[in-house]
């Protein structure tokens, strides 16, 4: 199994290209199931989660090919052979549940394994199911699978989500494009990935209004057609690399970055003492002479501070001057990086959904292990600021969400390498 070795060093300087968003691509790919014409995605990230989604779509009989080294994904669902998503693939990746809405909308039936929980929380899918029921779906849970039918097709309805869910909004939005009549989704997620999905669906002929707000209205159409769509920039990869010069000094431009994707995060970075500048190329981040200041953060649905950047921001707060309080409001178990950061000399107290971090002047390298994706990269960031060598084990989590992390960081001067089979 691979490990990443990071050796703390001085300021970083240069440019880091930001890839297309994993979380957008993972919902755009199932959208291919809504049409018998081809859907092509450009600016796709090259990640193991994307390969898992390709495998899942392939198991349903879709044709999926990657071009230009994986940056283009060409898909066609004209000859699907199955409407059943098997446990063996679904268990690898929770986003697999996103095939449910499209299959049900197009074929009137689907069987999808329940994904189960994961390291960061229980993550039920009840809201995905309730929203589909509001469109007339009949659901039965048997042998670990959701058996869904809509014999006469889905019908438009109104559904108000009791809490904001990105995935449930995506599943319902895709299903509603082919439902008869008008669907109104209230308290919908507003994430840029939702807007990207709606933009792609409109390119395929869907009639959608209100994406990016909390009420989305969809007028069902008879059929969707083929399209080509560029995947939106990965705001979480962007925020992660913006933290690198914050942690070890210097100035880095994240190519393709946009402030509107991450406004709440940029505000916090500036409050901590960084300068963030938007240019034609992307977002430039520079650290001046002074100390990083402690800043409190509470995670929220978009446009709030993203939970997917909480672990990485904690790495920065570990070396800030003063005490910061980080509140995790989305997932019930998303502080597993804290004990590993403590092994590197950080001072962190976790009480339920709150972590209090007392900054130290220097972290110390150590062998560490991560149990989820963002936790893994937070340990790499911490390693950039630590004295000596940090060895991050179990990097398969990292490969779910970061392409060529070691190449991107070493190109701006970080001392980081991947070791195979250690
Ligand atoms: C592939 C993908 O896009 N993943 C992102 C997506 O995950 P995902 O779509 O799974 O996250 P949700 O927005 O659905 O989850 C938000 C909260 O709602 C709860 N919930 C969700 C659905 C449901 O049916 N019932 C329920 O109770 C979850 O347990 C969680 O506590 O949004 C999260 C929140 O921004 C991000 O951290 C993930 O990176
Ligand atoms: C939690 C994440 O992903 P997933 O929803 O695929 O587990 C993430 O991207 O940080």
UniProtKB/TrEMBL annotation:
UDP-N-acetyl-alpha-D-glucosamine binds at residues 94, 123-127, 308, 330. Phosphoenolpyruvate binds at residues 22-23. Gene3D superfamilies: Enolpyruvate transferase domain. Pfam families: EPSP_synthase (PF00275). The modification 2-(S-cysteinyl)pyruvic acid O-phosphothioketal is found at residue 118. The active site is at residue 118. Pathway: Cell wall biogenesis; peptidoglycan biosynthesis. It is found in: Cytoplasm. Belongs to the EPSP synthase family. MurA subfamily. PANTHER family: UDP-N-ACETYLGLUCOSAMINE 1-CARBOXYVINYLTRANSFERASE (PTHR43783). This is UDP-N-acetylglucosamine 1-carboxyvinyltransferase. It comes from Roseovarius aquimarinus.
